[in-house]
Amino acid sequence: MGCDGVVFVFILIEPIGCDTGFGHQTALLLNKNGFKVFAACIDSNGEGAIALRHKAHYPAKMIVIRMDVTSDKDIEAAYETVKSSMANGELLFGLVNNAGIAKATEFEWCADIRDGKKVIEVNLMGMIYVTRRFIPLIRQAKGRIINIESVSAFLPTPYSPFYGTSKYGAAGFSENLRVSMHKFGVSVVSLMPFFYKTPICDANRLADEFESSYKTSSEEVRRAYGEQYVKNAQAGMSLTKYAFKSQTVPKVIASALTVYEPDPKYIVAPLLVQPGLRLLLWLPKETRDAYFQLTAWFTGTHKAYPD
User: Fold this and answer.
1) Residues with catalytic function
2) CA-CA distance, 1 to 144, in Å (whole number)?
3) Which residues fall within 8 angstroms of residue 176, CB to CB, at 6 or more apart?
4) What angle do CA 256, 259, 28 make, to 5 degrees?
5) Can you tell me the distance from the alpha carbon of 205 to that of 216, in angstroms, rounded to the nearest whole number?
6) Strand stretches in 212-303, DSSP E
7) Is residue 100 over pLDDT 90?
8) Whole-prediction pTM
9) Mean pLDDT across the chain, nearest whole number?
10) How many other CB atoms are found less than 10 A from the CB of residue 71?
11) Which residue has the higher pLDDT, 62 or 307?
């Protein structure tokens, strides 16, 4: 597929801005290949946005705009910017929904359920809001929508129930949208990365957030779980320091946008772990549950430690 008449939009919202992550790397990769890129960041003047402009191989084709995916006003402004910035003959061919946040907690720990609601609002509803607004342009181009989900869409996510829930929802959204947009020649792709280094996986942030969530819970909840449970879970979270580097994911996103006929679903993981992931996917739920209970036993989080 050539570069002429093609515009890509990237939603690059990460927990600490858009200075790292899959979207940031993908935007730079496709810009280097000559594509015009609209990079939507939570802060268009932040460190990540500045880095995008500075690192762009073709600065004139890297347009950074501000957008909070939970804000109707921001989404509308971004839409108008994209529409007005397209030259004659250009089409919006690709939309990459990459906005994502996570909160390390247990389901009943959040003193304010709005903490969990925010995760679902960004990861799932934000994807829906943005897609709904931009889909007329994608439909006109017979383009592609790439939804960045996670293996958490089909495997439980320890210490992050709201994140896992949002990814299950995002996967369901992609499945339904794929069928409904087929009649217009629009491809909808689910991309499910494994355990890669992104701001969401920062071990120190996760441990601090987990402890803070515990401390703000009710006294009854704190006594039910116990401080030892928190310490054991934090020790398990330290394994995120060994997450895989994320260069593979941007390459798969770029491929899904540019190949003649993309797959409907990509599970992106190192070759070494792919067989195990696929096995977990096809195992009966009872067997999968037993596996996760076993892993919890190794970290000492298979039980509570009431005070």
Assistant:
1) 159
2) 13
3) none
4) 55
5) 16
6) 265-268
7) no
8) 0.91
9) 88
10) 14
11) 62
